[in-house]
Write a structure and sequence with these properties.
heterodimer; A: FAD/NAD(P)-binding domain; 3 domains; 5-stranded parallel β-sheet; globular; B: alpha/beta; Elongation Factor Tu (Ef-tu), domain 3; 7-stranded antiparallel β-sheet
Amino acid sequence: MSEKERPSKAERMKMPRQPMPEQDPGERARNFKEVPYGYSPETAMLEASRCLECKKPTCMEGCPVGIDIPSFVNLVAEGDFRGAVRKIKETNMLPAICGRVCPQETQCEAKCLLGKKSDPLAIGRLERFCADWERASGQVELPDIKPATGKKVAVVGAGPAGLTVAIDCARAGHHVEIFEALHKPGGVLSYGIPEFRLPKAIVGAEVKNAENMGVQIHYNYVIGKTDTLDELLEDFDAVFLGTGAGLPLFLHIPGENFIGVFSANEYLTRSNLMKAYDFPNYDTPIPRGGCVAVVGGGNVAMDSARTALRLGAEKVMLVYRRSRNEMPARAEEVHHAEEEGVDFHLLTNPKRVIGNEKGWVTGLECIKMELGEPDASGRRRPIPIQGSEFEMAVNTVVIAIGNSPNPLVPQTTPDLKVSKWGNILADEATGRTSKRGVFAGGDIVTGAATVILAMGAGRNAAASINEYLETGEW
Amino acid sequence: MHEIVKASKIGPDVFHFEVIAPKIARKRKAGQFVVLRINETGERIPLTIAGADPGQGTITLVFQVVGKTTAALSALKEGDSIQDIAGPLGKPTHIDNFGTTICVGGGIGIAPLYPIAQALKNAGNRVLTVLGARTKDLFIMEEQMRRVSHEVRICTDDGSYGTKGLVTNVLDEWIKELDNKVDFVMAIGPPIMMKFVAKTTLPYGIKTLVSLNSIMVDGTGMCGCCRVSVGGETKFVCVDGPEFDAHKVDFELLMQRLQAYKEQENQAMEIWRSNHEIPA
């Protein structure tokens, strides 16, 4: 489509945002296949042609990795998908993942001018389309790699932050090795986010690209145990710590150790990383069926609730202490969860897990909440309504209220400064820690956040690592 | 991939493997464990490291067949490989010269006890050892334990070897015999045994540690599956343990939580048995 054939600005304002075809809610709630099918080339071009081509585009301000959104969207509108992918990959090497898991509605799409009058441009869906189109073409292009510098970078953790650093440092000509504690790459992309939201074949393909750029990955390698950080520094010129969210938080209510109470980390790891949903073909077990309560209002809670449905739960209840407005989950995840039949109990807080004499969960006692004045997070503080206790009959409780930082690296690295909560202290712009040559980013620094924020931190840290390796200045 | 360079059966359903894992062999300390996954469809299970040869780059794993994964592991032969081994995990045993220590090992628990007894002896302790099993045939590693102990006393439930009775009877008598001059007790065995060892030493006020073997997935603190209650606080066996103050552990909870997957474990085992056998 040439510029002349593009609809006028006024017409573009009237064009509807193109929906992405997806599996029927009733059907998909019982399988682990990906929910949306993605755009066809025609739909992608039509959607891209809605872009207003603003003189001063604001969408890019909303992107943590600074993708040149107007340029790639314009290339899609013209049908130059190869060019569009190249444009995205100038700043984001993991577009198939970001297109699927970024909270676009609070980032790029929140800044889109179209959104002021109608629905914003579907930037995330277009990014996903480009990445999928390239993968399906069988010709995935690798970025140019600078001549070898002879410098070595160690990356701890093969999650979103670590993979981003590895790719960016490899591009700069450094030798990069990743040390991953688990037996598969991807971090939260593999153990946390379910197959129906992010197929593991896609994670595998993106990791393969990194390997094709020369990045080596060591699995089952637990830094802090198999080697300490100081030992890594003997062999590497710089180290990036992207160890992730770490230890699951529990509610500290009575009965939390009954059998059937899971952290979301455990529940999702069993299902996703260990493929317990395919038991007994895979050896890892997970409870199936019954009534499941999931506690929390973030993406991890939505993933847990939707996983429970797919594991055959008769009823899945989401228990969240604030109201819908305060839910941190992506809008699409909340929408999908509701469509699939997750029963939302908002303004509700668990008080106690009830179990039988053999230690198995039989119920969850909750109390109703109301919203008071805003708290430190700016959200209205939930306050219990006295006497409103009630009981839900459940066999499984999944606690999805966040994580605290994993202590393994700080425990064995006395001169690495951490916050009072145990998060590694690192400069926001450069990822530099208190220890020379050591950088950090992602959830281990910020506490549980999003995949794209971890990638953004990785991007900044990689730039800073490359600069440090060039100048030697700390 | 980790090649099995030596595989032998050392008791009924108990196997001794030496496996290539050079890094872990150099790093491991007494009391630590690994998490392994046999193959692509396997589950992750923790196994205590029973020894290591840093020169050969091998670690020793001693395990009893209790479910599908250990059964499938037992069917591997020398030259076969284990796909994934991560470690060494958990905190090492705090080794010091405590003075007189009694090491209590029950059944398969003798395997993880061995490197700890060895380290205690090397640190200058007087190591007295109580070993127990249901019956004579179930004893493992007795010779090794004798080498790292100043004295060993044996008991069986049925009296087929050593004293007839439980390790707790032998332990209690020994403490009395020593006029309560025991500085430290380390006990590893079935949870019920550890629970009663704790009960035995409590009135004497002897510092007592136990090593817990709970269900784990990642083994690095991420999942919280292995949580136990110690002194009323929830702890993770994988990163806070595996050793805890025996007098503070809620053994009932530990035993309950070990039952969490009995049904699925039995199902998986039945399927495995339908076309495999545990080596004779």
